[in-house]
Write a structure and sequence with these properties.
Layout: H1 26-34, H2 39-42, H3 61-71, H4 75-80
């Protein structure tokens, strides 16, 4: 009888292992940790590398547009605010001149 996985998979494109920590499988998480990369950002690097110069990550524009619409703002305003998008890694905090 085959084993069926019912949980979430690794967020890294091309990887089909089960989710272990920070949205990545154990192998991808350890590789990110080895190179000192944020695991949430490492998920955007494809497992087999980029195919060509036009290869890009699919961003969740529909979710961002829905969130911006529900808050009565534009997507640009939502993305410009650090930590403004749910599920997005937090940006840098306010600087010393931002009061």
């Amino acid at each position: 009888m085959p084993i069926t996985l019912v949980g979430p998979l690794c967020a890294r494109r091309g990887c089909r292992r089960p989710d272990w920590k920070d949205g990545l499988c154990h192998a991808c998480w350890r590789l990110a940790h080895l190179f000192g990369k944020d695991p949430r950002l490492f998920a955007y690097e494809p497992l087999q590398g980029y195919a060509d110069e036009r290869d890009a990550v699919a961003l969740p524009w529909a979710r961002w547009e829905a969130q911006a619409h529900s808050e009565g703002r534009s997507v640009a305003d939502l993305l410009a605010q650090p930590g403004g998008v749910r599920g997005r890694p937090p940006g840098p905090g306010p600087g010393p001149d931002d009061g």
